[in-house]
C-alpha cells in the first residue's frame, strides 16, 4: 500500500483548492460534459479550437480533489497545444494512471502531470483522474454526447 | 465438517449477550478480524451490506456438503431434506415478520426484485392511464425506477411526498397527495441515505382509509427494527437477506394473501405451475405461483440461519444498542469543525450521512480507507435525496450491532486526519 501523500501531493491539493482556468469560456467553439456516476462528479470542458490548435481551454464543475486537480492541470498543460499533441498526452496520462506504462509511451512528455502517477496505486480513483480527459476527447471529437466514466 | 468449537462459541455467545457483549459477538464474524492496510478493519458500511456470522457460513457449507438437492421435485432422501430446510425457513420468516400465513412469504433475489414483482404483477394488472402511484422524496432508486417504468408504460403519474430539511416526510403533503386515482403508496421504512425512520404505521392507516394498498421497502429496517406486518397492516413488505447478516442474492416479499391471490404471476417457469399443456397452464397456488425456477436454496437456508442468529440476540436489544451507538457517533461527528450531518430526523436508525466543508466525500472515503475504516461515499443510490440537500455526494457511516464506541472514535480520528490532509 503506497502512502497517501503519493495520491494527495501538494501540487494536486493546490490545484483542487485554486483550480486554474476554472470558468466558462465565452469564445468556446467546442464543449462537452462529463459525469462520474459513482461519486457524482460533473464537469464541463470548453475549447476554443483554432484549426488544429487549442487556443484556449477551460472547465467548470464539481468533483473530488483528484478529478478537479486533474482537470485544472490538464487545461494548464494543453493551452496552445495541437489536437494531436493533446491525444498523445492523454494516451501517456492514461497509461500512467492505470499503471500500464510499459515504455511505449514516453513519460518524459508528461511534465507536471507526473504528479498523478500515485493514482495507479488507488485503482478506484483512476476514473476520477481521467474524467476530464475523457470529456476533453469528446469535446475534440465534437460528438456533443455526455461522457460517463461508467 | 463443522468445527465443534464454533458451534459451542455460538452457544456461549448466546448466554453472554445480556447488555450485548459486543466483543464476544465480534468473534462470531470472521470478516471483522480482517486487517486492512495493516490496520484492524473498522467496518461502517453496513447499510450497503452486513458481514456474516460463522453460523451462516457454516449452514451454507453444510447444505452444500451434505444436503444439496433440488426442492419440491424428488422422492429421494436429499430432496426431502432440502425441501424441509427450505420450507422451514419460510415458516421462520413468517414468525420473524409475524405474517398470518406461510404462503404470504415469497422468496426473491432481494428487495429490488420484490418491488419489481409488485410493480409488474400488481402494477400491470391494476394501474391504468391517469392513475397515480405515491412514493417519497427519500426513496432508494429501487423504489423509484420500477414505478417510473410502470407509469411510463401505463400513462400513469408518479407523485412524490416531499421532505423537510431534517429529512422527515411532510405528512400533511402526503395526505393531500392521496386521491381516488392513487393505486398504491410505496414508501421506505428507514432511509438508506438519511437514516430517517418513517411513521409507516399511521401512513398505512391513512392510505387504507381511502382503500389504497401500501408497499413498505424494508431493506434498511429489517436489520434494525422488529417488524410485525399484521400490526403495521402493510400490504407488501420487501427486504434483503444480505443486510440482515445473511447471504446476498436472497430476499423476501411479504404480501397479504388475498392480494397475492388476485395477482397474475411475475415470471413463468418451473415450480410456479400445477399443470402445463401447449394450450394453457394452470398456475400453482401461493407462494409457489411467484417462485418460478429453481430458487437460491442455499441462500434461503443461509438466511434462515441468519434470522435464527438475530432472533437469539433479539432485535429490540439490537435496536437499543445501536441507538446508543448512533447517539454517540452523532455527538462525536457534530464536534468536528466543518462537518455537516445530512439527515437529522428525530427518529433515526444507524446511519450517519455527512459532508465536510470543501472536501469531497470520495476523498474522505479514500483517506479513511487508508486508516482501515470502511464507509460509503457517493449518492447511495438516492440521487434525488442528494439533489434535495444540494450536495453531489455524502460520506456515510452505517452501523451494526457488532460496531463499538471505539470504532466511532477511530472514525472521528480518521476524519480529523482527512481535514489535516486538506488543511
Number of E strands of chain A = 4
Task: Give the termini distance of chain B in whole angstroms.
Answer: 54 Å
Structural class of chain B: alpha/beta
| Assigned CATH class of the largest domain in chain B | Alpha Beta
**CATH fold category name of the largest domain in chain B:** Aspartate Aminotransferase, domain 2
Total strands of chain B: 17
DSSP helix count of chain A? 5
CATH superfamily of the largest domain in chain B: Type I PLP-dependent aspartate aminotransferase-like (Major domain)
Biggest interface reads:
A-B, 21 and 20 residues
Total domain count of chain B: 2
Strand content of chain A: 15-25%
* Average residue-wise pLDDT of chain B: 93
* Overall geometric form of chain B: globular
Average the pLDDT over all residues of chain A and give the rounded result: 89
Quaternary class: heterodimer
CATH architecture tag of the largest domain in chain B:
3-Layer(aba) Sandwich
Keywords:
heterodimer; A: 150 residues; alpha+beta; Sufe protein. Chain: A; B: 423 residues; alpha/beta; Aspartate Aminotransferase, domain 2; 4-stranded antiparallel beta sheet; 15 helices; globular
Describe this structure in words.
The complex is a heterodimer of chains A (150) and B (423). Chain A is α+β, with helices and mostly antiparallel strands and 150 residues long. Chain A has helices at residues 4-7, 10-17, 65-78, 83-97, 126-141; strands spanning 30-36, 41-50, 53-62, 147-148. Chain A has a single domain, classed as Sufe protein. Chain: A (Alpha-Beta Complex), CATH 3.90.1010.10. Chain B is an alpha/beta fold. Helix content of chain B is 42%, strand content 16%. In chain B, the strands form five sheets. Chain B has a seven-stranded mixed β-sheet, sandwiched between helices. A four-stranded antiparallel β-sheet of chain B has the order 13-14-17-16, with helices on one face. In chain B, strands 1-2 form a two-stranded antiparallel ribbon. Chain B has helices spanning 4-15, 22-27, 54-67, 77-97, 111-126, 145-154, 171-177, 200-209, 229-232, 257-262, 297-313, 315-334, 361-370, 383-388, 405-421, and strands spanning 35-36, 39-40, 42-43, 105-108, 132-136, 157-161, 182-188, 214-217, 236-240, 251-255, 273-276, 281-283, 339-341, 351-356, 373-374, 376-378, 394-398. In chain B, helix 12 runs parallel beside helix 15.
Amino acid at each position: 500500500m503506497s502512502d497517501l501523500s503519493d495520491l494527495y501531493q501538494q501540487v494536486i491539493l493546490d490545484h483542487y483548492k485554486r483550480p486554474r482556468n476554472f470558468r466558462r469560456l465565452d469564445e468556446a467553439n467546442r464543449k462537452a460534459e462529463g459525469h462520474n456516476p459513482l461519486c457524482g462528479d460533473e464537469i464541463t470542458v470548453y475549447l476554443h479550437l483554432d484549426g488544429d490548435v487549442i487556443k484556449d481551454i477551460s472547465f467548470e464543475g464539481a468533483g473530488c480533489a483528484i478529478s478537479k486537480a486533474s482537470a485544472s492541470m490538464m487545461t494548464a498543460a494543453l493551452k496552445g497545444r495541437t489536437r494531436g499533441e493533446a491525444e498523445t498526452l492523454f494516451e501517456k496520462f492514461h497509461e500512467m494512471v492505470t499503471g500500464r506504462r510499459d515504455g511505449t509511451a514516453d513519460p518524459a512528455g508528461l511534465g507536471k502531470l507526473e504528479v498523478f502517477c500515485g493514482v495507479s496505486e488507488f485503482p478506484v480513483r483512476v476514473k476520477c483522474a481521467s474524467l476530464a480527459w475523457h470529456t476533453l476527447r469528446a469535446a475534440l471529437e465534437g460528438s456533443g454526447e455526455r461522457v460517463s466514466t461508467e | 465438517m463443522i468445527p465443534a468449537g464454533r458451534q459451542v462459541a455460538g452457544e456461549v455467545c448466546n448466554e453472554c449477550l445480556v447488555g450485548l457483549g459486543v466483543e464476544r459477538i465480534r468473534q462470531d464474524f470472521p470478516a471483522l478480524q480482517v486487517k486492512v492496510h495493516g490496520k484492524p478493519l473498522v467496518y461502517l458500511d453496513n447499510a450497503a451490506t452486513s458481514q456474516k456470522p460463522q453460523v451462516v457460513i457454516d449452514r451454507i457449507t453444510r447444505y452444500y456438503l451434505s444436503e444439496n438437492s433440488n426442492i419440491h421435485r424428488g422422492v429421494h432422501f436429499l430432496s426431502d431434506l432440502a425441501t424441509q430446510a427450505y420450507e422451514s425457513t419460510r415458516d421462520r420468516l413468517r414468525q420473524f415478520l409475524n405474517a398470518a400465513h406461510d404462503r404470504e412469504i415469497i422468496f426473491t433475489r432481494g428487495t429490488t426484485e420484490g418491488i419489481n414483482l409488485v410493480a409488474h404483477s400488481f402494477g400491470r394488472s391494476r394501474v391504468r392511464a391517469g392513475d397515480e402511484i405515491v412514493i417519497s422524496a427519500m426513496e432508494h432508486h429501487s423504489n423509484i425506477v420500477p414505478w417510473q417504468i410502470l407509469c411510463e408504460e401505463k400513462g400513469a403519474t408518479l407523485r412524490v411526498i416531499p421532505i423537510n430539511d431534517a429529512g422527515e416526510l411532510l405528512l400533511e403533503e402526503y395526505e393531500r397527495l392521496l386521491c381516488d386515482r392513487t393505486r398504491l403508496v410505496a414508501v421506505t421504512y428507514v432511509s438508506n441515505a438519511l437514516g430517517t425512520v418513517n411513521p409507516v404505521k399511521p401512513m398505512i392507516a391513512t392510505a387504507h382509509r381511502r382503500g389504497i394498498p401500501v408497499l413498505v421497502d424494508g431493506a434498511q429496517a429489517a436489520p434494525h427494527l422488529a417488524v410485525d406486518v399484521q400490526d403495521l397492516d402493510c400490504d407488501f413488505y420487501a427486504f434483503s437477506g444480505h443486510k440482515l447478516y445473511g447471504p446476498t442474492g436472497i430476499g423476501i416479499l411479504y404480501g397479504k394473501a388475498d392480494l397475492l391471490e388476485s395477482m397474475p404471476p411475475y415470471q413463468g417457469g418451473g415450480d410456479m405451475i400445477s399443470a402445463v399443456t401447449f394450450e394453457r397452464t394452470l398456475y400453482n397456488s401461493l407462494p409457489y405461483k411467484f417462485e418460478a425456477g429453481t430458487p437460491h436454496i442455499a441462500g434461503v437456508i443461509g438466511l434462515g440461519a441468519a434470522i435464527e442468529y438475530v432472533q437469539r440476540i433479539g432485535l429490540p436489544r439490537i435496536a437499543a444498542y445501536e441507538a446508543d451507538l448512533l447517539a454517540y457517533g452523532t455527538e462525536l461527528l457534530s464536534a468536528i469543525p466543518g462537518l455537516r450531518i445530512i439527515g437529522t430526523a428525530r427518529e433515526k436508525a444507524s446511519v450517519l450521512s455527512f459532508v465536510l466543508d470543501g472536501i469531497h466525500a470520495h476523498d474522505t472515503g479514500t483517506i479513511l480507507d487508508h486508516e482501515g475504516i470502511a464507509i460509503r461515499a457517493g449518492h447511495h443510490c438516492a440521487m434525488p435525496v442528494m439533489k434535495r440537500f444540494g450536495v453531489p455526494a455524502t460520506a456515510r457511516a452505517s452501523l451494526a450491532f457488532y460496531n463499538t464506541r471505539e470504532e466511532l472514535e477511530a472514525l472521528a480520528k480518521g476524519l480529523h486526519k482527512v481535514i489535516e490532509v486538506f488543511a
